[in-house]
């Protein structure tokens, strides 16, 4: 059960078998069926979850009542509301399973135990946050500086496994499009 997460950790830093065994001992395995909310807006996030199996969506509901997809997460990715988890304040997002999922979970308490016992994990999580921030900055840049066709093609290139696993209206929401507009973009591309 821990092979994938240990391989992930070793890609970040050269952890010893003992350090990984301690890490594994703090993880909680959890199965969640499709269409389960892991977090609701207003709740305080109590998890950072590594996805062994499945697909998860993080989204916000805007002032008009529309769902705005912020992130998709699949196998070998982490999912959480980092602000809510770290600061222990109410979340502004929903986190929902789109498929049956298997997760390995750290709570604020178990993560603190891990970082105290094995300081190398502090570096691993810092590197993860830095990569996530870089991706968010790139996404912001693409949002303000590329055409709709370029945004869609970039999404397909960056996340080739996602379109077969999620509904098109979720992809449209992620890209900032209406579902109808995404259909027009896809039709334009297929005509080329």
Under CATH at level 1, the class of the domain at 3-118 stands as Mainly Beta
Number of strands: 8
End-to-end separation: 45 Å
SSE order = HHEEEEEEHEEHHHHH
Radius of gyration: 18 Å
| Bulk shape | globular
Q: Helices, strands, pairings?
A:
Blueprint: H1 3-12, H2 17-26, E1 28-32, E2 37-39, E3 48-53, E4 56-61, E5 67-73, E6 78-79, H3 82-87, E7 94-97, E8 101-106, H4 108-117, H5 120-145, H6 148-158, H7 168-175, H8 179-191
Antiparallel strand pairs: 1-8, 2-7, 3-6, 3-8, 4-5, 4-7
Structural commentary:
This protein is an alpha+beta fold. The protein has a domain at 3-118: Jelly Rolls (Sandwich). The protein is built from eight helices and eight strands; from the N terminus they run ααββββββαββααααα. It has helices at residues 3-12, 17-26, 82-87, 108-117, 120-145, 148-158, 168-175, 179-191; strands spanning 28-32, 37-39, 48-53, 56-61, 67-73, 78-79, 94-97, 101-106. It has a four-stranded antiparallel β-sheet. Strands 2-7-4-5 form a four-stranded antiparallel β-sheet. The N and C termini lie far apart (45 Å).
Outline:
The chain has helices at residues 3-12, 17-26, 82-87, 108-117, 120-145, 148-158, 168-175, 179-191, and strands spanning 28-32, 37-39, 48-53, 56-61, 67-73, 78-79, 94-97, 101-106. It is of the alpha+beta class.
Q: Which descriptors would you attach to this protein?
A:
about 190 residues; globular; 8 strands; alpha+beta; about 50% helix; Jelly Rolls; four-stranded antiparallel sheet; 8 helices
């Amino acid at each position: 059960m821990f092979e994938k997460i240990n391989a992930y950790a070793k890609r970040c830093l050269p952890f010893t078998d003992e350090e990984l065994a301690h890490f594994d001992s703090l993880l909680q395995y959890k199965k969640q069926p499709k269409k389960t909310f892991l977090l609701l807006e207003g709740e305080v996030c109590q998890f950072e979850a590594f996805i062994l199996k499945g697909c998860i969506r993080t989204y916000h509901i805007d002032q008009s009542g529309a769902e705005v997809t912020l992130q998709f997460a699949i196998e070998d990715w982490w999912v959480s509301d980092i602000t809510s988890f770290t600061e222990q304040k109410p979340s502004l997002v929903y986190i929902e399973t789109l498929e049956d999922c298997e997760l390995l979970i750290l709570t604020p308490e178990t993560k603190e135990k891990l970082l105290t016992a094995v300081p190398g994990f502090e570096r691993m999580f810092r590197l993860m946050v830095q990569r996530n921030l870089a991706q968010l900055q790139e996404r912001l840049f693409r949002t303000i500086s590329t055409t709709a066709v370029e945004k869609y093609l970039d999404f397909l290139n960056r996340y080739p496994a996602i379109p077969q696993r999620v509904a098109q209206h979720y992809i449209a929401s992620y890209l900032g499009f209406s579902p109808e507009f995404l259909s027009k973009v896809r039709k334009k591309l297929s005509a080329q």
